[in-house]
Each structure stands twice: as C-alpha cells, then as structure tokens.
Amino acid sequence: MNHTDSVEDADSPSETPSRRYPELLVDLEAAEGYYIILADEFGQQIRLSPDQLMVLSSAIESGVLDAVLQPLIP
Question: Residue 52, CB half-sphere, CA atoms under 13 Å: how many?
C-alpha cells in the first residue's frame, strides 16, 4: 500500500494523535475498487474509488468546498 508519508498497514493509520490533518493512503489490494483511504488521527477511515476521489478533487479545485465550509469558519 502506498502512503503519503510512509508505508502503513491499511488497518492502522498513523498512531500520532498530534496530527490534525487526514492521511491519504492507497491500498491496491482493496476489494471492489475502493483503493483510496482517507484516515484521521483517531483511526476513522473513508474508502473511496479513484472516480470518487476525482469528484472530490474537482470540488476542491472549483471552490465548491470553500462555499460549503465558509459559514462554518469563525
């Protein structure tokens, strides 16, 4: 599996609770094409297909997420 910072086991993202950003992992052996893993510092994971990641990436690039998040930022 490929990881943005290092190679990790798919079931155990980084154990560093001081990190406050998600980790992006790639598990090429994942079932049903959900190769992309977004994991937080608490061990929660979201599995995405490459197509789903591309939709998310497009939303980020186009500013859609900025519009959604703006009311939540003090």
Answer: 10
* Angstrom distance (rounded) from CA 9 to CA 25: 9
- Total-model pTM: 0.62
CA angle 25, 29, 31 (to 5 degrees): 100
User: Cα–Cα distance between 65 and 44 in angstroms, integer?
Assistant: 21
Query: Tens digit of pLDDT for each residue in 2-38?
Result: 554 433 444 555 555 565 788 999 999 998 889 999 9
CB atoms within 10 A of CB 38: 16
